[in-house]
TrEMBL record:
Segments crossing the lipid bilayer: 21-38, 50-69, 81-105, 111-130, 137-154, 166-184, 196-214, 234-252, 264-282, 288-306
Gene Ontology CC entries for this record: membrane
Cell location: Membrane
Presence of the UniProt keyword Repeat in the record: no
Topology relative to the membrane: Multi-pass membrane protein
The protein, known as: EamA family transporter
Domain named EamA: residues: 22-152, 167-302
Length: 311
């Protein structure tokens, strides 16, 4: 992002009484949410693990170019290795790989909602792994959110007779748990190199095992036909929704509280659901909407409880 572009956004946002930070984070959430239906479209032409590989390979190339242009490209040092491994293998490789495979069998609205239950799992992981006893308010948020997950995955909503659909839902929840572990690690990590400078190395670390897994399980990508439609989808998923959004998150996400960021990311499943309905003509049931509302409420309560414990 060039200084001139940032200045234009600052000037315009001031005219509307909105901080440029919230404008950019709003753009990030919009791109993240809309990337889910675009990913679903791309999965019609690209196997899931190859799509995940292409996503991070292309995003890494773009981030390297961005950091080189700004003179900020750095080799990681020893103190960076734990967070490179955590983010690269759990948040990027596991979360995206599991999510891509799951989306082949699960509708987009349900996929994005289950994947973004991460804040709820943060409470569970902190309890189990770090012996952090949750407060009563956190437990209340967890119960509310889990009730939403139960509603979305109930037999009336999820085709329990279809093994692949059930497995897809499990993969999405495992992806959310993987991301939760990373979030808690990031909070405890002592940073040596800035997060943005580590992102290309994390993406490279994710790309290599994803490519190996894709080659072994899906074969070489010789059957892919790169037409204009697919090229546009891949460009949006990788350089835009991954690389550009990572820059926005690194530049502006640190300017607001964790509570504020948690509430911002709640927009991702909401936007993903709306865009999925528009793109595929899908409809959502009353039970799904109830589950969505419970998950959102549970995340808000959990985030509010976390903020209360810090003050």
């Amino acid at each position: 992002m060039r200084a001139s572009t940032q200045q234009v956004f600052k000037t315009r946002s001031k005219n509307f009484g909105i901080s440029s930070t919230y404008v950019w984070l709003g753009v990030m959430v919009l791109l993240w949410g809309s990337s889910w239906p675009v990913t679903k479209l791309a999965l019609h032409d690209v196997p899931p693990l190859w799509l995940a590989t292409i996503r991070f390979a292309s995003a890494a190339v773009c981030l390297v170019a961005y950091l080189v242009a700004r003179g900020q490209l750095k080799l990681p040092v020893r103190g960076d290795m734990p967070i490179i491994a955590s983010v690269g293998l759990l948040q990027m490789m596991a979360f995206t790989g599991l999510g891509m495979v799951a989306m082949v069998h699960v509708d987009t609205s349900r996929a994005v909602l289950l994947a973004y239950t991460t804040p709820l799992w943060c409470v569970v992981v902190a309890w189990v792994m770090f012996r952090e006893m949750p407060s009563r308010l956190q437990i209340a948020g967890l119960v509310i959110g889990m009730s939403g997950i139960a509603a979305v995955c109930s037999p009336g909503e999820l085709e329990w007779t279809n093994r692949e659909t059930v497995l897809g839902a499990i993969f999405l929840l495992l992806a959310a748990v993987s991301w939760a572990i990373v979030i808690l690690h990031v909070k405890r990590h002592r940073w040596v190199t800035p997060p943005l400078a580590l992102a290309p190395w994390q993406m490279l670390l994710a790309t290599i095992p994803l490519a190996i897994a894709a080659y072994v399980s899906e074969g070489p990508p010789t059957s892919l036909v790169l037409d204009r439609k697919l090229a546009e989808e891949l460009f949006f998923i990788g350089p835009i929704a991954t690389s550009a959004c990572f820059v926005i998150s690194a530049e502006y996400g640190r300017r607001i509280s964790t509570f504020g960021m948690s509430n911002f990311t709640l927009g991702v499943p909401l936007i993903g659901t709306v865009f999925s309905c528009l793109a595929f003509g899908a409809t959502v049931s009353t039970m799904f909407l109830a589950g969505l509302g419970l998950v959102v409420l549970g995340v808000v309560v959990s985030a509010l409880a976390s903020r209360s414990r810090r003050t």
